[in-house]
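Sharing a chain and its predicted structure for anyone who wants a worked example. Both blocks are below, sequence first, tokens second.
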Amino acid sequence: MVDTQQRIKSKISKDPAMWKVIDVSQLDYHWHMNYDIEILVMKAIDLSCGELIDFSIEGGIEINHLFDYAVKRSSKMKRLYIKSCDPELVTGGFIWAIKKLSQLEEFHLSRTYPTAKDIEDIGQNCPQLKSFSMNQVCQHPQNDDTALAIANNMPELRHLQVIGNCMTKIGLQAILNGCAHLESLDLRMCYYLRFGGKFEKLCMARIKDLKSPHDSMENCEFHQDYDDCDIYD
């Protein structure tokens, strides 16, 4: 295994421009069994020489340590994607590090569950944030806390995806009021929302690209891990 990793390292490019984008969010079982992923990712981050602008990472590897490692060496990061991260790692690890990513423009969370306070911290420390997604399957009672946190702390958003959120009409109205520049809004699987009548027409008139709670999840990457479950009907 060590010899294989050394051969890989000897062949990879040392040009920082080749390492501006690092994606370890979809590694299959073979990679996890045959390589020390953490060491390879750290090497890739080192090769970026501070030029890393796009970082994607998934649970199953040392997310907290690798994220900390990347942030300390990549203050220019503009896009961040995190998949399947334990809630305590979001609050305990990612949020404090976000303070170092003031240039972040896109932040995407999938099967990761930040609190309203986490979202407040993200919005307040990333003033240039234009695109935010927080996709999950929520089986909790209706709750507008995260929607209100988005509305009150992410005023520059152009694109918002909140698949499976537990918000109600109150939370959605707050987002429409607080995020005046929204161009696209994905509300699929937000089954506590009751679309219809004047409110639906208002949303359709306001948002260029609107996906409603019961719109198809076909071809949606997030949906590959879940069945369509209208559990709130």
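Comments welcome. The chain has a mean pLDDT of 82.
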